[in-house]
Design a protein that fits this description.
Chains A, B, C, D: It is found in: Cytoplasm. Chains A, B, C, D: Zn(2+) binds at residues 131, 133, 216. Chains A, B, C, D: InterPro entries: Aldolase_II/adducin_N, Aldolase_II/adducin_N_sf, MethylthioRu-1-P_deHdtase_MtnB, Salvage_MtnB_euk. Chains A, B, C, D: Residues 15-37 are annotated as: Disordered. Chain A has helices at 23-27, 40-53, 114-124, 135-143, 195-204, 225-247, 259-262; strands at residues 63-67, 74-76, 92-94, 101-103, 128-132, 147-151, 160-164, 171-173, 179-185, 210-213, 217-222. The longest helix of chain A has 23 residues, at 225-247. Helix content of chain A is 29%, strand content 19%. By secondary structure, chain A is α+β, with helices and mostly antiparallel strands. The first copy, chain A, has seven helices and eleven strands. Chain A has a nine-stranded mixed sheet, with helices on both faces. In chain A, strands 7-8 form a two-stranded antiparallel sheet. In chain A, helix 3 (114-124) packs parallel to helix 5 (195-204) and helix 4 (135-143) packs across helix 6 (225-247). The A-B interface holds A 1-7, 10-16, 55, 58-61, 82, 133, 135, 138-139, 142-143, 145, 186-189, 191, 213-217, 243, 246-247 and B 1, 3, 5-6, 10, 12-14, 35, 37-38, 42-43, 45-47, 49-50, 53, 84-85, 152-155, 158, 175-177, 226, 229-231, 233-234, 236-237, 240-241, 244-245, 247-248, 250, 256, 259-260, 263. The structure holds zinc ion (4 copies).
Chain lengths: 264, 264, 264, 264
């Protein structure tokens, strides 16, 4: 919706500010301070804001992690904060090799999603992992049992198939006539305890680029943050469409031309 | 939706301006004039704008009150105004101890929600109270009888349980396997007459952080304005989800794995 | 949704520009040039933008007219233009007394809604008239026969009852226990031919502040543009809620406590 | 939704930058560099951003092409990019006469929609073609068989009938009592292979200004980009309305007054 009513001088809400580091250290906080809008610390902020307005991370839900494409450092938004108000200085930064935090904001604690993000980095060589509490994911986890399945929709073509072009070696996406299958794992009391279920799903579905967590949300990853963002958008579109199809009685993976058999 | 079409120089709508106080008094109106975006007078404006675009406070519905964390003064948006156009100078300010207004805008009258806000401050030691006319709250009040109940959804974990960690004394939130219960009280002809029903619900549900008003909306409070905002977002997400579950025939508090018994 | 991705320097879409009037005449176009955001020519632009993002006036549908509170001149947006891109210089201005246009943009033609707007000005002494193609209005015109009826919802209290306070003479709004009734008239091939049906409805429903046009949209008016805006928002909220209630089987004017008899 | 929370200094996401052309060539890139917001290269960017926030082109889906009204050059957004992040320098430009690209961004490949856009230019003398993955189009392609049909809705009047005013020669739009008919063609594995189906539909439905592609989306064109935008908005509105009518059991092309026979 429009922002026509925002006046110059409108004051935005802000998270509590981090205690000021000394001037020297702040100026030399190159891990998170960058004028490049594509720096992971900046991208996490702008993506979380976008996700918030999509109803994907309201109420402090969800999260995102990006691996710096050059340094390999892993950037993670903190736990339990209002995602639309994140600032670069709120980020945790982890050294990929040692698994140790090399930057820790004083006011916050690390995201409970951290072990799940790390599983995607290590088992899938992800460049970024997105976790949302999308209502479409939750609804699909109630409609479907072990797998979310949707077939014969153009938007499926935005999702990787896990196969490679035999000639050029490039990653191939699903085709229109394919069925997108996303595993659904059961939720656990504590988000970090999801790690086992996620790792099993990663093994059982070697081509999956996402895992739905029942009554919780979805994890989506990709080789770069741009691809993870696109995969997440395409999958959310498909889950939303599946809910609408189900509402009319049409199974989301039904054959082309068989819709009228099911239509209420 | 995008604001790409807003041009520099677009003129926003504005509420009628308060008659100018004398230059001296205006410069010395420190109760509402602050450059700090987290000052209650500023936060009420930015939150009401956000709520407006969420369809929570359109048509002058709803309201919000924030207790200044340092002075203890209670800030309240006026009655019957367009919430997205609020400015700091429109605020009523009440002295907590005496219950007397220490700032009264000339053009407006106090919110009819005031006694309800005050009940939350006194019975729950709230730091802020949010009142919306969310359609999800109204729909849930039609679907449910005396209590809104939803269970086994991750987003429940954003809501306080009312219990405290026995070791550290910290407030504990609900767990994934808990059932969130929010009392529903009946509406009255005049909003101020809701006070009795609200106070009874506060006594009967000592752990509740919200009360739904049938065919009207919801009141949500928290120890700080940030927490009240997060609770309200999480509860609205859960009420929206409950409506979608009900539309498919699934009871929002049904057991995990029992969905297919109900699915239409 | 967020506009976080708008970059400075983004170029907005613009309607074709009016042929430049001579510098003198342009500087002396006080009918539409004003730095006051509440001037009718400016308000029509900002409100149409807001309405566009509410899906009320997409595809050039809908319109709005405001009577200048001081001069009594009637401002009307032109016909068939993209409402979100309106600029003050696109406005038609009519002299109330003579009914003659005193300002006519060269590129555009007057709105087909003009006779309907004028009926509201003359029969109801309106200060502004809003016409939207709201899908909630169209759906309600399919669900209901001669009248849209909804009862016992708090938001009804934002709508005038047509009665006056016997003591203070102030306009009274509906109460929570009242039923809001909005007449539904049948659509005609040409929008200007709606005038007869509208005028009859205005006579038959002397307390109505809106008329729904079947399979078309809604006209809402009020004594000031602020009130017309609030009435339109509150009525749209109620029509949206009525559609949701009907979807679950609940008649929007059913008695309090009778919902479960109807609930699917 | 509001953008009130965007702070000055927020950093937007950006697509990878094109390798810098030499300063000279960049300054002399008049095919895509223009300060005129209505230049095709600028309009494609602002329209794609608008479409993105409408959920029409998320996940890199959809596309748009505009013919420069003076040079006749055809502007096309590249394939597989995030549509909300497009910049003028990302555009492909084709010479209409020769069919040869006269501008080719180094990092991107041409849109797979190109042959479809060209069909609309040659068979319909279009000035612009819009392709979205609108969920309303996909749902209508599941509900309807060979044709999308909707009748007796005011918004239909925004769509051209294909007939001309016998006196003035002006294009006539549909009337309120007409039925809008949009052909639905079957999707193919590769978007470029849709060309045959599209061209057949263009021949079979000489008055159509749009073609729905089953389980894929919609192509809409018009004599100018403004008209194509308006047609697309009006058709999307009508498809959305048709889904809502169908949800209640009402056939979108049912006669006026027959709704109650079908209403669930
Ligand atoms: Zn989570
Ligand atoms: Zn209220
Ligand atoms: Zn109309
Ligand atoms: Zn496509």
């Amino acid at each position: 919706m429009s922002s026509c009513f925002c006046k110059e001088g409108d004051t935005p809400i802000e998270l509590s500010r981090e205690p000021a580091r000394s001037m020297e250290s702040q100026a030399s906080d190159p891990l998170v301070k960058s004028s490049d809008p594509r720096h992971p610390a900046n991208l996490i902020c702008s993506l979380c804001k976008l996700f918030y307005y999509n109803n994907w991370v309201t109420g402090t839900g969800g999260g995102i992690s990006i691996k710096h494409p050059e340094t390999g450092h892993i950037y993670i938004a903190p736990s339990g904060v209002q995602k639309e108000q994140l600032q670069p200085e709120h980020m945790f930064v982890m050294d990929r090799a040692s698994g140790a935090y090399i930057r820790t904001p004083q006011l916050y604690k690390p995201s409970a999603c951290t072990p799940l993000f790390l599983s995607c980095y290590s088992q899938r060589n992800a460049g970024a992992v997105i976790h949302t509490h999308s209502q479409h994911a939750v609804m699909c986890s109630l409609i479907f049992d072990k797998e979310f399945r949707i077939a014969n929709i153009e938007q499926i073509k935005a999702i990787p198939s896990g196969k490679k072009d035999p000639l050029r070696g490039k990653d191939l996406n699903l085709s229109f006539f394919d069925t997108l299958v996303i595993p659904i794992i059961d939720n656990t009391a504590h988000e970090e305890d999801l790690t086992d279920g996620l790792q099993e799903a990663l093994l059982a579905y070697p081509n999956a680029t996402a895992v739905i967590v029942r009554r919780h949300g979805i994890y989506v990853w990709g080789p770069t943050v741009d691809k993870a963002k696109v995969f997440n958008e395409a999958i959310d579109y498909l889950m939303e469409l599946a809910c609408k199809m189900r509402q009319l009685g049409i199974p989301p993976d039904c054959g082309i031309g068989e819709e009228s058999k099911f239509l209420r």
